[in-house]
Amino acid sequence: MTLKEMAAELGVSISTISRVLNGCNKNFSVKPEVREKIIDFAHAVGYQANPVFKAIRTLESRQIAVLFRKRSVIKAGYVMEQALDAVEEVLEEQNYELNYILSAGTFDTPYRVPHWKVAGVIVPDVLAYERLSEIEASGLPYVSLNGLCGSSGSSVISDETANMRIVFEHLLSLGHQRIGFANSHVIKHQHYSIYDRENAYIQLCKEFKLPEIAGYKVSSSPLEDIFDHFIQQKVTAVIAYDEYIAQRLLYLAWQRGIRIPTELSIVGFNDTEINKFLTPPLTSFSIPAGDMGRSAAQLLINKIRNPDSTNNDIIKISGNLIVRESTGVKP
Question: Do 250 and 266 touch, CB atoms closer than 8 A?
Fold first, then answer.
């Protein structure tokens, strides 16, 4: 039902209905019984104000831009998909609407700021500071979700040092003393988690007085060579940077006749549903995607409502380890 139809039904002006439903009190008054009648009728017919028109009238935008470097939410990865679901949930509860925008180009191409008025910006998986140049120049409130942020933004990321410690403590409790880390391969721009997990591996080896097994650095070497090196070094457990590397390690172990976990334990990061159906089911670290998304959304709302709030906040959130049959006691 339109405002015009409601006005005809209630016998009041369109402007009166509009002001009542939008909570306008400046230079406007209406009898309490008329206000109550309008509100009750609007609820009865299920009337909802158009947020775009409301934003135009009030000069307040309720639009949030989500800027992607890839074609779709799914392409951003399972963890990011979960995080953005949580972002949507929080922002929609606060009557914000999300616009998903592709910022195509190379890894160095800046994200494009929308031409229309938006209240704020969420940017998933930022890999390079250069890509934030237009957003920084715009002065828009923005939060980087699971990636880098510039001087005027804020970021919510996974606490990789705490996460790696949880994995280490699990393997140590099983008696493992020779632990390898199979890192990601070389690409032009690396995700922050690659170096954070690598550095955490080095720190934890020193803390627990364990040998650092070569192979933990970002490398262009084939995974087969790294795996064979681990076996030669008598490694009893391997931590994989992500689930894809962990799944390939399971395959290489099967190919070489190495029993998991009797002879070798394997742990992956970024737990997904498929890991419980592998042979054997994969022990995997669950990144706190939902918590990260909710924190990013609330942080952005705070920045929109308090423009003078502190920038460059970095919030780190740790996850939890899902223990399955790919890890066992030291052989």
Answer: yes
Question: pTM of the predicted model, to two decimals?
Answer: 0.78
The reply to whether 164 and 228 lie within a common domain is yes
Let me know: does 162 contact 195? Beta carbons within 8 Å: no
Inside any domain, residue 329? no
Select from 155, 157, 158, 159 the least CA-distant residue to 311: 155
Euclidean distance between CA atoms 116 and 97, whole angstroms: 13
Q: Are residues 180 and 280 in the same domain?
A: yes
| Pair (142, 218) in one structural domain | no
Domain range for 108 is 63-158+290-318
**How many domains, in total, are found in the chain?**
3
Name the β-bridge partners of 143: 122, 154
From residue 152, give the alpha-carbon distance in Å to each of 138, 155, 303.
10, 10, 11
* Low-confidence residues in the chain, pLDDT < 50: 52-53, 55-58, 73-74
Q: Report yes or no: 192 and 157 within 8 Å, Cβ to Cβ.
A: yes
What one-letter code names the amino acid at 61? S
Helix, strand or coil, per DSSP, at residue 314: strand
In whole angstroms, what is the distance from residue 141 CA to residue 138 CA? 9
